[in-house]
Amino acid sequence: MIKPCWKPLVDGDGSWRGRDARRRWADPNGRVDGLFWYKDLGPHVNGEFSMAVIQANNLLEDQSQLESGSLGSLSSGPYGTFVGVYDGHGGPETSRFVNENLFPMLKKFASEYQEISADVIKKAFLATEEEFLSLVRHQWLDKPQIASVGTCCLVGVICNGLLYIANAGDSRVVLGRVDKTVKGITAIQLSTEHNANLESVRAELQLLHPDDPQIVVLKHEVWRVKGIIQVSRSIGDAYLKKSEFNKEPLLARFRLSEPFHKPILSPEPSIFVHKLNPKDQFLIFASDGLWEHLSNQEAVDIVHSYPRQGIARRLVKAALHVAAKKREMRYSDLKKIDRGVRRHFHDDITVVVVFIDLSSMNRTPSRSSNFSIRARGGVPTSANS
């Protein structure tokens, strides 16, 4: 018997859409199938969404959430949809922390400033970072390795016809847009990535740290910041933010030989604001585990070619088929590999597909419209996904 490897949190039933919608959006908690968790279709105030996660690590390091309805602490709004994908590294602690704390921070600042804006989202990122660093400081003596745990952080907010994308790390969001001049659908990447394998990121790091010839190091054909980590922006990773956490009792492999006087990694997100238009059909938010195996265009083609129901799960399975083929094995054999060992074949993969209904943005949702779902990992006893 397989114990559930997920503990989804759901609030709200989407009842503002009626009985037919409730049948269409069955299973408000999502479903579990071995190392898979998925919510095949659900409502948000600006349309519908599909969500899926596959675990590869021994402890799931990806976390994700969708919050729809009020984006502030007050009943007056603002209203919209919030999507978060948090790809942890070094452990699950930071991604879990962000999954619990980033959206409440956003609501706090949105209420304080009475709006959603790029500045409000940035403040939410930085406040969440400070809260986590305070936690690291509190646990430092008893649990020093928490200083080496971090997460990429990709957020999308739809509010008042605008789409805000904020990213720190190398997760990605891609827009699917129809264009009569082009057959099919066009993929448009909206997020800026912060991975040292990108020449622009290495140039940025070298500009910020001109006196450090080892700020980026090529190791085993992979560029890494200080020879340790690929991403240049994240939440957490306190050992590369504050020198007080880069010493014993931290493990030697994380300690730098020379002290540093300013943060090496940054928690500040790159933010992009886009006015949605009728050509914008859907958004694919995903951790880099998906993009390692599917191109932007391949992903949007899949979403455009199949029904909405279960489309996020279909994307994950498409990536797994590619991962299996790369290792010259069958997908059916990959499915038999348990968590932990599975990480040698692919990463944790999180996908949230958000379909956009511009007509719904002219309606003011009621408080009963609030919908919340978070996929959080547990420990399964065996694999079958």
Low-pLDDT windows of residues:
1-18, 378-385
How many structural units, i.e. domains? 1
Based on CA inertia axes, which overall geometry fits? globular
The assigned structural class equals alpha+beta
CATH superfamily: PPM-type phosphatase domain
Q: Provide the residue-averaged pLDDT.
A: 88
Keywords: Hydrolase, Magnesium, Manganese, Metal-binding, Protein phosphatase
Protein name: protein-serine/threonine phosphatase
Cofactor: Mn(2+); Mg(2+)
Region (Disordered): 362-385
The gist of it:
With 385 residues, the protein is an alpha+beta fold. Helices cover 24% and strands 29% of the residues.
Walkthrough of the structure:
The protein is built from eight helices and 18 strands. It is α+β, with helices and mostly antiparallel strands and 385 residues long. It has a single domain (9-195, 231-375), classed as PPM-type phosphatase domain (Phosphatase 2c, domain 1). The strands form three sheets. Strands 1, 5, 6, 7, 8, 9, 14, 15 and 18 form a nine-stranded antiparallel β-sheet that branches.
